[in-house]
Amino acid sequence: MKIICVGRNYAAHAKELNNAVEEEPVIFLKPDSALLINNKDFYLPDFSNDIHYETEIVVRINKAVKHIEEKFAHRYYDSVTVGVDFTARDLQSMLKAKGLPWERAKAFDGSAVIGSFVPLADVGIISDLNFSMKLNGQTVQSVNSSEMVFSVDKVISFVSRFITLKTGDLIFTGTPQGVGPVKAGDQLIGFIGDRELFNFHVK
Ligand code: MG
Asked: What is the pTM of this model?
């Protein structure tokens, strides 16, 4: 499986990092070795002093597809969770300044946290999901998925023009405003609505 991520998909987040909102989705990938599941501890890597959380809606592809039109994309996922796209912001800033790819800052081990998947039908519709993350008990990110610049269906359609999506692939759909650093001892709890879907610690 592969992990496909969208960058700059909420206007207020793009602004907080001084990025433009793009005309087309910004796409990058993480390898399967980046996955962190079952509320396992996240270990701070030694190559960064500024690891940021980015809380995101994550959907799982349920059958292979390529070149799918946006209006049919909803047929290719039916479960959803929240995840964290951990980012080495210091490394990312250095790579961006040099015009280099982001992978070292985005694709490292443990950088793709996912919560428990729930059937989309149980939590609502993809374009109207409230999701949030509590850092040490304080809500630091909270938004409705309707604020995405590019909808999940548009992202799937767009990506499928370039990359065949396969069963089990994950799409991280971008983070809203409120990103920030983590430190050892922090606890992160992610929600869709009132449902707690991940709860893990930073070591
Ligand atoms: Mg992200």
From this structure: 0.96
